[in-house]
Amino acid sequence: MDVRDHAGAGPGREPALRTGTANGRGVLEGAFHLLDVLAAAEDGAGLSELARDAGMPKATTYRLLRQLANLGAVQQHGQRYFVGRRLARLGGAWQPDPRLQAAAREPVRLLSALTTTVTFLTVLEEDRVRVIAATRGEIREVPPVLPGSELAEATAAGRVLLMQRPDGDAVPPGFTLAEWRRAQAAFRRSGSVAADHQEVLPGVCCVAVPVRRPDGEIVASVSALAVRPAVPAGLTELVLRASREITRNLGRT
What we know:
There is one protein chain. The chain contains eight helices and eleven strands. The protein is an alpha+beta fold. It folds into two domains: about 25-90, Arc Repressor Mutant, subunit A (Orthogonal Bundle), CATH 1.10.10; about 95-250, 2-Layer Sandwich (Beta-Lactamase), CATH 3.30.450. A six-stranded antiparallel β-sheet has the order 8-7-6-11-10-9, sandwiched between helices. The longest helix has 18 residues, at about 100-115.
C-alpha cells in the first residue's frame, strides 16, 4: 500500500512520495538527497545537472522533482529548479539545543558589550557550521549573524568545530590538504584558539575558542568578530572567559 502525504494528494496532483526504491535507495532517502543537492545550488539547477550531481537517473530525478514541487518543497522557474517556500519555512523552524542556547545567552551578550564585537555561538551539524546565538551590538559594518544561519568552514568558528570531529585529520569541505594541515598546526600552537586575520573578510578579524560541557566534551564554539585590521589586544582572553562561563552555566542546568 502506498504511503501518502495528504498535502500531496488531490485532484490533478501526484501522490506524495511513495515507499519503494529509486536507483537502489529508498524514495524518501532519495528525495532528501536531491533536496540537499538542490540546496547547495545557489542559482538553482536544471534537470540534467541535478540528476548528475545526485547520481540518479534523469527520469527518477524528474519524477521526484514533480512530486516535491506538488508538496511545495521545490519550485520551478523556466528550466531551473529551486528550493521551495514550504521547505524554507520548515527550515526556519529549526531549534538549537535549548540548554546550550540558554547557557550562552548572557556570556555572549556580555562579551559583545565588553569588546564592541559581533559575538556568536556555533555548533557543528554534520559538516555545517550553524549559529545558535548571536549579539551584534552597535556594529553595522557587517551583515547580521542570525541564529540558524550557516558560516563558512574557513571561518575561525568553523575551524574550531571541524578540528573536533572524530575524523579530524580528514580534509573537510572548503579546504585543500595544505590549508587544513596549516590550520591544524596553528590551532595546536595557539592552545585551541583559532583566529581570522582578514582572511575571510577584508578589514574584519575574528577569534574563536571551543566551548565544553562540564565533562570536557566540546559541544560548540564561541567567537568574537571585530571590524579591525588586527585582533584587538586582550580579545582572546575575554573570549576564553566567555567560554568558561558558558561551561559553568551548563553545569548549573
